[in-house]
What does this fold into?
Amino acid sequence: RYLREGDILVLNDAKVIKARLFFRKAETGAEIEVLLLRQIDENRWISLTRPAKRLKIGTELKHESGVLCARVIAVLEGGERLLELNYDGDLLRILEDIGEIPLPPYIKRKGIESDFNDDEYYQTVFAKNLCAIAAPTAGLHFTESLINELMKNGVSVKTITLRVGYGTFKPITTDNIRNHRMEQEDYFIPRKTATDINKGIATGRRIVACGTTVVRALEDSYYKSGKVKYGWSTADLFIYPGFKFKVTDALITNFHLPRSSLMAMVSAYVGLDRLKEIYRIAIEEGYRFFSYGDAMMIK
It folds into this structure.
């Protein structure tokens, strides 16, 4: 009904890592919550910590499992800590064993909800590259059978990988939207994906992005190269009203938090007045909002 023969549907196959950890300060035993945000190199990660005030450079942290330690080596401008991790073996495997899925801040699990299987449900069925700290939630609406049905009906399904970061939850606090600093996110576009999208653009095929992360990767690549380019890159593009889309023709996306960069991108697609009307209808019809909520397709 919404996707048709000849469309190119692009998915983000990033898988959420268990990046939420609980350490104790080696000196005092005080509990410290750590969210690993972005890997700088093999052992160093930009991280959010709570409480953060007393985490000075040189502070040692230990995990109760004994398999992972950390040391604060820098305090960054935004209050984040640069941590140096100490471990043996495969870090992602260690995180799978001792970490937790970092749910969005507005999701609180209490009582019976604490048994909800977020490890399973906060991953898309096509997730394969462990690299993100948040799910590309528009993809949660797709099942394997739906994807297979789309392909049978002539929809070409392609993937990219964008390491969804904490910036997806960061509110816009500036009075002028142009002054908002968007967090950088690394992404990878496979050669076949880049080739097929560029051919699709040239031949007038519709490029449908599943999620704002896909839009950001594709538009950032085109903005830098004049085409969708194969390989790794780092997205620093902030899309807000007035932006001219060069790659994506339609977007499947959830209903987002107000004053978010995601809302700004959606507004760039449809305009502020139409966006308000869409949300008014969604509220009247009882649609669910945010990560585990419903989705819309806009073009």
Remarks:
- The radius of gyration is 20 Å.
- The chain has seven helices and 15 strands.
